[in-house]
Specification:
By secondary structure, this protein is mostly helical. The chain has two domains: about 1-45, Arc Repressor Mutant, subunit A; about 55-175. It is built from nine helices and no strands. Helix 2 (about 30-35) packs across helix 3. The radius of gyration is 18 Å and the shape is elongated.
């Protein structure tokens, strides 16, 4: 028998596997092989594939939040100020990998595939609430600015993934983000 993994170590391995190969390729068997353990050990900690996917998606969201949190040193006046601070962090190779995974999950959510249809809206809502804490103003205004920032970020990053970095960067420049 191989190394005995903790749940946290298995989750880290699952996130790494998803980042490398995508959520569609994440299975108990592939994860067990990657970690050098049996799929029964994986099932012990993650009884269903939906449980595994859910934890991977939440870990992905937390990783991005931690990365952005380090960049948000001051409260922003509006969504554009928030975008200006976030953009350099969001255009790194590591962020590109996370957003590729996020966009894969978004596509599955949009077509109603569970657990994505439940998890991704909840994740985006959590990001809106979290990001609103970094914007000045009354509660509803902060929320609206956070929603706008997230909508623009997702659009710019999707453009980068689909058409190329240059297209996304040109659009960001046109918006005054860079």
């Amino acid at each position: 028998m191989g190394h005995k993994y903790t749940k946290a170590e298995m989750l880290d391995g699952a996130l790494a596997a998803a980042l490398d190969d995508g959520l569609s390729q994440l299975t108990f068997g592939r994860l067990a092989k990657r970690l050098g353990t049996s799929d029964r050990v994986i099932v012990y900690y993650f009884p269903t594939k939906d449980d595994l996917i859910g934890e991977v998606i939440m870990a992905m969201g937390l990783r991005l939040q931690e990365t952005l949190g380090a960049a948000f040193n001051e409260v922003a006046a509006d969504h554009l100020d928030l975008l200006r601070v976030a953009w350099p962090v969001l255009t790194t190779d590591e962020a590109d990998r996370v957003f590729a995974l996020f966009f894969e999950a978004n596509g599955l959510a949009v077509v109603g595939r569970e657990p994505y249809a439940t998890l991704i809206p909840a994740l985006v809502e959590a990001w809106i609430v979290w990001a609103s804490e970094f914007v000045e103003g009354a509660e509803q205004e902060r929320r609206t600015e956070a929603e706008t920032a997230i909508a623009v970020i997702d659009g710019l990053l999707l453009l980068r993934k689909l058409v190329g970095d240059e297209a996304g960067n040109r659009a960001a420049q046109r918006l005054g983000v860079v």
